[in-house]
Amino acid sequence: MIFADAAEMGFDPDRLARIDDFLATRYVEPGLYAGTQVLVAREGKVVHLGSQGAARADGRPMQDDALFRIASMTKPVTSVAFMMLLEEGRVTLDQPVESVIPEWKSLGVYNGGGAGVPFLTKPPERPMQMIDLLRHTSGLTYSFQHRTNVDAAYRERKIEAWHGPLDLDGFVAALAEIPLEFSPGSAWNYSVSTDVLGLVVQRVSGMSLDRFFEEKIFAPLGMKDTAFTVPADKADRLTDCFALDPKKGRVLYDPAEGSAWSKTPNLLAGGAGLVSTIADYHRFTNMLLNGGVLDGARILGRKTIELMTANHLPDGQDLTQMSRSLFSEAVNAGQGFGLGFAVNLDPARTLLPGSKGEYYWGGMFSTAFFVDPVEKITMVFLTQLMPSSAYPVRRQLKTLIYAALT
After folding, report:
1. Are 159 and 145 in contact (CB under 8 A)?
2. Cβ distance 110 to 121 under 8 Å?
3. Domains 13-79+208-403 and 92-205 share a fold
4. Residue 341 burial class via C-beta count within 10 angstroms: exposed 0-12, middle 13-18, buried 19 and up
5. Average pLDDT over the chain, rounded to whole?
6. Long-range contacts of 299-307 (CB under 8 A, 24+ apart)
7. Which of 73, 144, 348, 381 is the most buried (most CB within 10 A)?
8. How many other CB atoms are found less than 10 A from the CB of residue 215?
9. Where along the chain do its domains lie?
């Protein structure tokens, strides 16, 4: 990482220092989070890096090289992988998904049934396209949405058992037996779409998803600590992961000792499976900010990044008009969606400081990042508490960061 003087980069150092004080007094000391890390950079240079609290329940201090489960912050990586194949002319955005996943040629749209009664389906208004997987307009869902008989079927069949018996081929075969919630392109719903996109990358490239990530993205970018599995020689750096219990408060969910992430998964979850560090993900966001290149390693072309970070919701709509999700990693007001990221269309409607064109995402364990191409700011926030909706820390961090900008 390259560090720079905050004042020279246009920040008030005293105001940036508020970030650590805020996280410590509001979240760590009261026991809401065990520990946190936050990195703020401008033009790729780090102006603030802070670690708070403990990495594990035994109280060991948080270290700068701690490993975190980044969950849905995996999704932008998978989206970048797909767009690399697009740049090679091997896929297109309007290509039918069934051309790569023929198991889905007869996939229908929900038209009744479920909850113990056989599903009734109707044909989709149009075939699902690759763009639908990238922007979550596929008609797929997540089991934790708790909205419909379709997501109930996901729960019943344990579709999202990321460390279960299914591999990616078995995953899409299981999904082929459950109808879509809606016709592709007609609505937006946070879903397993990016996990399916991971299988597309795997089949089109002829490489396993983990190998594609390592050889095409992580190694070129110097992301030496990012993978689907924590190797034995790095196990001591993995943080404990917690969940919020309504009655007990913060409880241990996945301890570092014997973590599910210490074993090679059958399902290479392109929507949820990676472990990373704050330094590694900073390199990934820096590549995005730089238009697809970092330290001479070209991952994507500049115009491809511009395409990915534009709003791709039909007719220029925002999420308030298209979203059916009861939960996602985005707020809806003033937000569109691109090819792997939520996109800020109107900062005034978000009720937060920011820039038009800023893009971002987060993960279920409360991790988050954003890239502001106008102010050339990137932020990575890491902690380990499920669900990410437990506390408004992301909105608070945004306010603190932009308040420090001079």
Report:
1. no
2. yes
3. no
4. buried
5. 96
6. 299/80, 299/84, 299/216, 299/217, 299/220, 299/221, 300/80, 300/83, 300/84, 300/87, 301/87, 304/83, 304/86, 304/87, 307/339
7. 73
8. 12
9. 13-79+208-403, 92-205
| 202 within 8 A of 78, measured Cβ to Cβ | no
**Model-level pTM?**
0.96
CATH of domain 13-79+208-403: 3.40.710.10
Q: Which tokens hold the place of 250?
A: 């913060």
User: Given this structure, which CATH class describes domain 92-205?
Assistant: mainly alpha
pLDDT at 402 over 80: yes
Question: Which tokens hold the place of 401?
Answer: 């960061």
Mean pLDDT score, 4-32: 97
